[in-house]
Design goal:
It is built from 14 helices and 13 strands. By secondary structure, the protein is α+β, with helices and mostly antiparallel strands. Bound molecules: flavin-adenine dinucleotide.
Length: 451
């Protein structure tokens, strides 16, 4: 049955490798895996009812914030203006037409207007609360949200495969009745990502989080499904939780049905307000297509004639390279800053064809050519994040510009990063200590000693 599902998936996505010349970046077809091979890869699986497995392949992001930055930098190169720590706090109206937004500077303080003929509200799970605040009315069909959660542990199976195990919550959409929804243990860099757990969420999006008791329950569930993992709270280096709209839900129900479609709302039709469009995306993987539809709608409304750039074919910032292995090899053999294989690979993953920018900083200042202690992050990446990517504090550098803390507390490397940041920004010792404390507060309390 699983193989039939995998075949259907392969058929539906048969053009997925179109135009990808690099064999390393092609997504292979699914295949059945004999029982003996499954047990060799996952020796702690209970063998009694095991008949074999099915392998299917999918893409994986090495570092999601860096993909966002690649898109932003590609847009900036084409004339988009970026603002950071700029919160939209109000909508400017001229009768029933939107004329811009009111923005609060979250770092420097103060408010300022941004004038615009059209506003696209793409604030994710915050989009609907913002509309309620701005317009005093909800959407005609308000969404319900799932709090999706996963966590990172520093443990990996020897096999380069993820493992799907049965969790406890049911999948309301499954065409064939199954016991429960799958949970995944996915190899990611030197870690495993475990999840995703879904829960109906009706509270303020600003307060989304996970309690230690929920984490304990999830650990119990995953350990029950694959006892060989033997995970406890101290293994959790970092957790993630966020809100996603999901599909139709029976009033008051708690069974989740996956959302299938992103929401694109023209408020001229919905509320009689012109110049306002809302996009609530459902999946990262659908982001480009959703954005294209939203931009097309906005440009149509503005009567603009310039065609939208072909974003399905244009490489993003860092995407102009042929074979990944050759990119890594070129970085290893860089004439001025030769890199160790692991560092070269990480740099290629994070910056693609723009990795040479980082090495430019390292060539000018050899002290920046060294990785921070115990990591693959070069000192040059920190300076690059500050000078070129609008990083404003240590948390930006550690979580949103580099790999440094995306797998949990990096220990001494964080101190080294703070030293470089202090040098660049001229922080005194008190500011440096405050910034370090701010970042450390984001690691789970129970995992801190294990870093
Ligand atoms: C645990 C988890 C696992 C996931 N796994 C996958 C997966 O495997 N595959 C997949 O495709 N998707 C996955 N997703 C979903 C994916 O993360 C989202 O679909 C995607 O991030 C939506 O992007 P977005 O830009 O529409 O919204 P968001 O990423 O929510 O971005 C909205 C932005 O708006 C900003 N904002 C909010 N209010 C304001 C304001 N007033 N002024 C200015 N800015 C504001 C926010 O700070 C935020 O940066 C997962 C999500 C979670 C939580």
């Amino acid at each position: 049955l699983l193989m039939a599902g995998t075949l259907a998936y392969d058929l539906l996505t048969c053009d997925r490798n179109r135009g990808i010349a690099d064999p390393e970046r092609r997504i292979p077809w699914g295949r059945p895996v004999p029982r003996r091979e499954v047990l060799a890869a996952f020796p702690d699986l209970p063998p009694e009812r095991l008949t074999g497995g099915v392998l299917f392949a999918d893409g994986q992001m090495y570092n999601p914030p860096r993909i966002v930055l690649s898109v932003l930098r590609a847009a900036a190169a084409r004339g988009a203006v970026m603002a950071n720590y700029a919160e939209v706090v109000g909508l400017r109206m001229d009768g029933n037409r939107v004329s811009g937004v009111e923005v609060e500077d979250r770092l420097g303080g103060g408010r300022f207007p941004v004038f615009a003929r059209a506003v696209l509200n793409a604030a994710g799970p915050f989009a609907e609360p913002l509309l309620q605040r701005w317009l005093g009315r909800p959407l005609k069909r308000p969404s319900t949200y799932s709090r999706d959660a996963c966590f990172v542990v520093r443990r990996r199976f020897a096999a380069p495969w993820a493992l799907a195990v049965m969790g406890r919550s049911r999948d309301a959409d499954a065409m064939l009745a199954r016991e429960a929804r799958h949970l995944f243990v996915v190899p990611w860099r030197e870690f495993s990502l475990i999840g995703v757990w879904h829960r109906v969420y009706r509270d303020d999006p600003d307060r989304v989080g996970l309690t230690p008791s929920e984490l304990e329950r999830y650990l119990e569930e995953i350990n029950g499904a694959y006892p060989g993992l033997g995970l406890d709270l101290a293994d959790i280096r970092l957790w993630h939780a966020g809100l996603l709209p999901f599909g139709e839900e029976k009033t008051g129900g708690s069974e989740l049905s996956y959302g299938k479609r992103s929401l694109l709302v023209d408020h001229a039709d919905e509320h009689g307000i012109h110049g306002l469009v809302t996009l609530i995306g459902i999946r990262y993987t659908m982001g480009r297509g959703d954005a294209a539809k939203a931009v097309d709608l906005v440009t149509r409304k503005l009567g603009a004639r310039t065609p939208r750039p072909p974003t399905d074919r244009l490489p993003v910032f860092g995407g102009r390279f042929g074979r990944f292995a050759e990119l890594v090899r070129d970085l290893e053999r860089h004439p001025r800053v030769p890199l160790a294989p692991a560092t070269a690979r990480a740099l290629a993953h994070n910056y693609g064809s723009e990795a040479s920018r980082i090495l430019g900083y390292a060539a000018d200042d050899p002290s920046l050519a060294e990785p921070l202690p115990g990591s693959t992050v070069l000192g040059a990446e920190i300076v690059h994040g500050i000078r070129e990517e609008m990083a404003c504090n240590l948390a930006d550098l550690a979580f949103r510009r580099t790999d440094l803390a995306t797998g949990g507390d990096p220990g001494p490397a964080l101190e080294a990063c703070a030293d470089l940041a202090a040098r660049e920004w001229g922080w005194d010792a008190a500011r440096r200590a405050r910034e370090l404390a701010g970042v450390r507060a984001q690691f789970p309390r129970f995992a801190r000693q294990t870093a």
